[in-house]
Amino acid sequence: MFGQAEAVTMDMLKVALDAASLRHQAIANNIANVDTAGYRPASVNFEQQMDAIRSTLAQGRAVQPEMLRGILPVIERASPVTDFDRTALLDTEVSNMAQNTVQYEALLKAMGKHMSILSSAVAEGKR
What is the domain partition of the chain in residue ranges? Predict the structure, then answer.
């Protein structure tokens, strides 16, 4: 059972880190193109794909590895930006970048703690 729980945790962290990385790229591209006529801002669809996982956890059931298959962050495009929207887009994207950075760092910290727990368990097993 420990092996499956560890695999699910690592898979979930990997998918979340991939989504945060892709989101960072999309936001950076949105900021770089804020003055480009006809530019369609990008966003990353990830959270909606995790609804089944959240529902399973809310019901107190374990997440199975196969539930994570097929979850892939996807870039989506919005309507083109008008001249009126450009300032709001820049402000929103800078805020989104800061939020995504905090989330990414939190995921890295969680992965580090998880790896530390596993390392301790392995070290204890060698004694």
Answer: 2-118
